[in-house]
Specification:
Structural class: alpha/beta
Radius of gyration: 20 Å
Number of strands: 11
Bound molecules: nicotinamide-adenine-dinucleotide
Strand order of the largest sheet: 3-4-5-9
Distance between the termini: 34 Å
Helix content: 40-55%
Strand content: 5-15%
Length: 354
């Protein structure tokens, strides 16, 4: 797994090794978004090995492949935050495009040397996003696997480029690739620059809850555990060369997401400094190029592979809010210098978690 110390990667390493017992090597550069504490549930397991490094480091990746002889590579490593890509797109091009290219090159070299039966069974799974499809109008049908790519941010453009490279390595070299395009995730271990953890943490500290523009930007939301199950399902049963859209059939406007978090907190955390928490909602200037609506048609993975999400938005969100309340030590560990600088740059000093 690459990027396994990040939000989805860490959830996936735990999900995979619990379900299969297979050994896992996690390669991660530990950027601001990577955190070894996210892997605490698997670090003690003898079948898990953490390696600090960059997916763009060909010598390291090549050596790891030869040494550990994996039957699959799952690529989560990425710069993943749209707002950061607006302030500094360079890192996104380096990791998401150049890094994925180097990783593909090394994996291809390794795969070509495998004996025939292992070559056939090998998989390279690339984890991507619904943001590559661009923005929908309110009445447009949801994104399907045949929707034309139309990325609008440096983040989504860099992910789209990586998806195209993966596609090309299948068509040109025959590498058995799989690509998944998923909607917005939420759940344990998500870095609190993203909407749901940011709102939870600010609400329990009594700080303003920043909502972009009119709050009517719509996203489809999926609990991270359901995303991990879907990736495992695609890895085991997906057809090489195919892409699979993954989503929760849970379209929500941002303002409704924020209000739902507030209502859950009113109920399960009545000792907060500000109840009702909705009083903290503050509309802030919209970000440039903010896509209006994303929605996913997940019919292909549901019909072909039999995957379905287990959590509804309400049950998954309740679990998530409870997790952040129960894991304040983890929160304190990640809301340090770099994080505080980012919140101040983006929303101003009054939005700092205390
Ligand atoms: N979070 C979402 O809602 C969402 C939705 C759909 C798809 N995705 C995709 O899923 C993947 C994981 O997303 P996430 O939210 O867990 O991201 P994240 O930012 O939480 O984690 C990314 C991880 O990759 C590591 N990393 C970054 N650059 C690296 C490099 N050059 N080499 C090795 N490791 C590197 C980081 O240290 C971090 O641990 C990304 O590819 C993202 O595009 C995310």
């Amino acid at each position: 797994m690459t990027g396994g110390a990040g939000f989805i990667g860490a959830n996936f390493v735990f999900n995979w090794s619990t379900a299969t017992g297979d050994p896992v090597v996690t390669l991660d550069k530990l950027t601001y978004a990577g955190n070894l504490d996210n892997l605490r549930m698997v670090q003690e397991r003898k079948e898990h090995l953490f390696v600090l490094g960059d997916i763009g480091d060909c010598a390291l990746v090549g050596a790891l492949l030869r040494q550990h002889h994996p039957k699959a590579v799952v690529n989560f490593a990425a710069e993943s935050h749209v707002d950061r890509s607006i302030h500094g797109p360079e890192d996104f091009i380096q990791t998401n495009v150049v890094g994925t290219f180097h990783l593909l090159q090394e994996v291809r070299g390794y795969w070509e040397m495998l004996p025939a039966p292992e070559r056939t069974r090998f998989r390279f799974l690339h984890v991507s996003t619904d943001e590559v499809y661009g923005s929908l109008n309110p009445d447009d049908p949801p994104f399907s696997e045949s929707t034309t790519y139309a990325p609008n941010s440096p983040y989504s453009a860099s992910k789209a480029a990586s998806d195209h490279l993966v596609r090309a390595y299948h068509h040109t070299y025959g590498l058995p690739t799989l690509t998944t395009n998923c909607s917005n995730n939420y759940g344990p271990f998500q870095f609190p620059e993203k909407l749901i953890p940011l709102v939870i943490l600010n609400a329990i500290s009594g700080n303003p809850l920043p909502v972009y523009g009119d709050g009517m930007n719509v996203r489809d939301w999926l609990y991270v555990g359901d995303h991990c199950d879907a990736i495992r399902c695609v890895l085991e049963h997906g057809r090489p060369g195919e892409t699979y859209n993954i989503g929760g059939r849970s379209e929500r406007a941002n303002i409704d997401v924020v209000r739902t978090v507030c209502r859950i907190l009113d109920e399960i955390h009545p000792g907060s400094p500000t109840v009702p928490h909705e009083k903290l909602i503050t509309f802030v200037k919209d970000r440039p190029g903010h896509d209006r609506r994303y929605a996913i048609d997940a019919a292909k993975i549901e019909k072909e592979l039999g995957w379905r999400p287990k959590e509804s938005f309400e049950t998954g969100l309740r679990k998530t809010v409870q997790w952040y309340l129960d894991n304040q030590a983890w929160v304190r560990g990640v809301t340090t210098g770099e994080y505080r600088k980012w919140v101040e740059l983006h929303y101003g000093a009054q939005h700092q978690p205390s």
